[in-house]
Amino acid sequence: MSVPAHAETTPGGTTSCVILSTPDIDRALSRIAHEILESNKGSENLILLGIARRGYPLAQRLAARLEHIDPAFHAAASTGQLDITMYRDDLRSNPARTPQPTIIPESGIDGRTVVLVDDVLCSGRTIRAALDALVDVGRPSAVRLAVLVDRGHRELPIRADHVGKNLPTSSQEKVRVLLRETDPEPRAQGHEDCVVIDAPVASDPDVARAPGQTGGGARA
């Protein structure tokens, strides 16, 4: 996937702009890790579950930061992955999805504080599916949500407890989160991990606007 060094227009009439670079994402994850510890009053009984696919590497990175901040937290034993493929409400209209393994820490999640981790929050339907999947895994004492990007446009009463960046977008824009673990294509230094907005170029200059300006719409 191509990543521009700055905002640029492609031959197809789409403007691509990097919103978060690798250092930006690193800082956002470090801040979220501190927020999680503060909210939980430490790392006791804390479990991180990344929503497949990009939520899992983000959960692993958060877990590594938590372990660095609080050595009492054991990242490898407290991090897992949650697959929501069979719980999605769009499965009939889009059945061509490859399920990922659900990985639950050996200690389980019963009575624990579970932090669900995902890359982008928009309508809230992915998180609804994750909550349904979680019920089949165990009964945590509390469930919280951490996302790298919140682009708004909620369709369900769901909000994130920890957000890397609030990013207002329009329905015409597409948000791409590219990570080394899931998107290994070579990218420029500083963009090994990045968040990119692709937006169509408006033909009328009166309605043209920069990517990220507030508008109606749903997650791409």
UniProtKB/TrEMBL annotation:
E.C. code: 2.4.2.9
Function: Regulates the transcription of the pyrimidine nucleotide (pyr) operon in response to exogenous pyrimidines. Also displays a weak uracil phosphoribosyltransferase activity which is not physiologically significant.
Short sequence motif named PRPP-binding, residue ranges: 114-126
Gene3D superfamilies (UniProt xref): 3.40.50.2020
Domain Phosphoribosyltransferase: 19-163
Alphabetical list of HAMAP family matching this protein: PyrR
Sequence similarity: Belongs to the purine/pyrimidine phosphoribosyltransferase family. PyrR subfamily.
GO-annotated molecular function: uracil phosphoribosyltransferase activity
Stretch list, region Disordered: 198-220
A Pfam family: Pribosyltran
Catalyses which reaction(s): UMP + diphosphate = 5-phospho-alpha-D-ribose 1-diphosphate + uracil
GO BP terms: regulation of DNA-templated transcription
Residues making up the signal peptide according to the UniProt record: none
Keywords, ordered alphabetically: Glycosyltransferase, Transcription, Transcription regulation, Transferase
Enzyme class: transferase
Protein name: Bifunctional protein PyrR
